[in-house]
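# step 3/5: fold
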Amino acid sequence: MTNDIPGPGRFEGNDSLAVSEYLADIDADRETGSIEDWGYWYGLIFQAKMDEKFLPAVAYIVWEDNYGFFSYSSYEDVAIAEMEFKQIEQDYAEYLDEKEDDFVGVS
């Protein structure tokens, strides 16, 4: 059996190199954030298939940071994944509101 744990690099710290590479290459069902603006991009992926087989989890939250590192969390419950993703969306919206407030205050 080969070791599928990613070594140093973009997918470092994830459970599976194959799953990391696959999730990084597909389109997310929902997205939020901005690497350029916030330092992070997040995606929510449902029922991902790799090699014509569904991946073990029913949902994944994936993210990439401004250093190019890519990570994911897997979920067995879609409702929990959606709840956590909604919190990320709220955090990003708050960041944008604060940024706008800071910009408006500049003269």
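# step 4/5: annotate
Residues 17-104 form one domain.
# step 5/5: archive (pending)
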